[in-house]
Design goal:
2 copies of one chain form a homodimer.
Chain A (H helix, E strand, L loop, with lengths): L1 E9 L2 H20 L2 E6 L4 H7 L5 H9 L2 E6 L3 H4 L8 H11 L4 E7 L12 H4 L3 E7 L9 E4 L4 E9 H16 L4 E6 L5 H13 L7 E6 H10 L6 E4 L1 H11 L10 E5 L5 E4 L16 H13 L4 H16 L20 H10 L2
Parallel strand pairs in A: 1-2, 1-3, 3-12, 5-10, 8-9, 8-10
Antiparallel strand pairs in A: 4-5, 4-11, 6-7, 11-12
Helix pairs in contact in A: 1-11, 1-13, 7-8, 9-10, 11-12, 12-13
The complex binds 3-isopropylmalic acid (IPM) (2 copies).
One 3-isopropylmalic acid (IPM) sits at the interface of chains A and B.
Chain lengths: 356, 356
């Protein structure tokens, strides 16, 4: 298979972990006889520094021309406590999602057996949990009009959803449920929000087309509680942009660590694959970042954008073997890990590469 | 002290648990020599059935005339899967909050030592956690304009905050932090929302007035994750209406069970005290509902609305003793609880009354 992959490392540890993700793609191509070509582009704080723009036109053009994108993270502490900063790394992220029409954000929350102890949640509650989130990514309160009135003393944000926006993400979720546990939980706040009432209407209207899927509706507050109390009751979850942002970060605790979670953002053309963790400026340059989320992002890329399931499974199995061999990065080590088994970014990357 | 308390049991188990809460108030008055008078009023589904209105004018008048309100819960399954129902129990709840100006919702998340094992979170992560949430309750996307356009195919909800709305709740939170661990975490989504940018601006502007308080700002997605990963890092948390709804339900898992959590909604006049659990229609009429959240609501009422700290502490200590004696309701029992120690609503209520 011939494909061209764009590498967008972004900021902070994004650069360190994406390098490992890319090496894994190169190894897979070699081993399975594919021809992947790579290009690279700037985004986030590094792009602001270089061009004044968090998502330069050149990057956007390369993105549009790519078959898939392996992305790192964007962000820099200098913007975090300055809500008034006019140019921010996150603007690049949001613009990319909108411009590329990446309306579906998939976040698989799957626990590697070896990491059962790493979570703050009890192992007996977690064991066997396996959730696939579909977060809508180009609508809701993220992209509606927002601003100030009354001399800046009143702020507003408009949440908005159209029927077709809900329908296309809901269909993706229904279809995914078919290939899994056949359960779909739609999360909304229909007892308060009009956008949620539309959301629920649309999901209810689609349900008869998927008679093999059991559909459940939960309010977001209750879902936030149930995810912790009983994660195994969830299979596929579909929800709006803002609720998805909150619930998927929360659910990362089910997998023990953010450092193990990948996500796919897809729509009608190219797809973006990235760790759900951020740019980790507190550990940037130390060489200790866990690259497994980037490696798992590469696995998702092969599976979802290229349909290369065996290649994707080879990566997941390599990670599984590395964990079974006892190797850990700092973030997933515990008191039972011997110091010589705690590896840095590159060293654990080598262990993964060896096992592909 | 002479006070008049309005009892609003509402729907489902609201009626069963509020009866126990009221008995506890009667016992306290007797024991500490206060003169509490009681009136009762309808709200929620029962009010819709009786009058067509989830918050009848008569109820609202009685509320305004009261010194404090002990409230149960509202809701009925018949509305839950009908997003189009025109009259709903929750409308009564939202209208009450707005009409009475109950802009501050306080939710203390405190774990009784005896229940350390009841949570899905590991005891070593939980031990010693003690969080006080301040959820803004009369603004945000709950009360902005909402509706449909494009022939009903597009839905919208407007989130709105004004400077003074943020300031008054933030001040309450700062002041509470003074009497506790002196840490305030303000939760927002300032990297995306204009309302959050205003929120952060206001909290930042107030901080210099409270130099003894350490202020931290967290994004809501990250806060949802940290609450589970490391609950002990939080002391007082202040946040907007919608984020507060989600995070406090999630945080209920820190306390082991929703059945143990009380909340206070206060503003400039009367206060409303209620369990954070709902109307529990699946267990209504079975006599098994845990009344402790209602009893703890009565304790909050005495403390916050009447300033009766000793009386409030007497209630909390009675509950503590009941738990230490080994008594449990079904929801907080575990495999080590002997069947004869699992009590129903009234029986555990009697055990509490005995110990006041
Ligand atoms: C950085 C931020 C704008 C972004 C979001 O809220 O979508 C992030 O939290 C995410 O989940 O990708
Ligand atoms: C019933 C619902 C409208 C309400 C809310 O969202 O405020 C409830 O969840 C609560 O937290 O009191």
């Amino acid at each position: 298979m011939k494909k061209n992959i764009l590498i967008v490392p972004g900021d902070g540890i994004g650069q360190e972990v994406t390098e490992v993700g890319k090496k894994v793609l190169i190894k897979i191509a070699e081993k399975f006889g594919h021809e992947f070509t790579y290009d690279e582009a700037l985004m986030g704080h590094v792009a602001i520094e270089a061009t004044g723009n968090p998502l330069p036109d050149e990057t956007l053009e390369k993105m549009r021309a790519s078959d898939a994108i392996l992305f790192g993270a964007v962000g820099h502490p200098k913007y975090d406590n300055d809500p008034t900063a006019k140019v921010r790394p996150e603007q690049g992220l949001l613009k990319m999602r909108k411009e590329l029409g990446l309306y579906a954000n998939l976040r698989p929350i799957k626990l590697f057996d070896e990491l059962l102890g790493a979570s703050s949640i009890k192992p007996e509650i977690l064991k066997g949990s396996d959730i696939l989130f579909f977060r809508e990514l180009t609508g809701d309160i993220y992209f509606g009009e927002k601003g100030r009135k009354n001399d800046g003393d009143t702020a507003y944000d408009i949440a908005e959803y159209s029927r077709y926006e809900v329908e296309r993400i809901a269909r993706k979720a229904f279809e995914a449920a078919r290939t899994r546990g056949k359960k779909l939980c739609s999360v909304d706040k229909a007892n308060v929000l009009e956008t949620s009432r539309l959301w629920r209407e649309v999901v209810q209207a689609l349900a008869p087309e998927y008679p093999d899927i059991t559909v459940e509706h939960q309010f977001v507050d209750s879902a936030a509680m149930m995810l912790i109390k009983d994660p195994r009751r969830f299979d596929v979850v579909v929800t709006a942009n803002l609720f998805g942002d909150i619930l998927t970060d929360e659910a990362s605790q089910i997998a023990g660590s953010m450092g193990m979670l990948a996500s796919a953002s897809v729509g009608d053309s190219t797809g973006v694959y990235e760790p759900i963790h951020g740019s980790g400026h507190d550990i940037t340059g130390m060489g200790v970042a866990n690259p497994m989320a980037s490696v798992l992002s590469a696995a998702l890329l092969l599976d979802i954008s290229f349909g290369l399931k065996a290649e994707s499974d080879a990566i997941i199995s390599a990670i599984d073997q590395v964990l079974k061999a006892g190797f850990r990065t700092r973030d997933i080590a515990d008191s039972t890990t011997a110091p010589e088994f705690i590896l840095g970014t590159d060293a654990i990357g080598e262990e993964i590469l060896k096992r592909i």
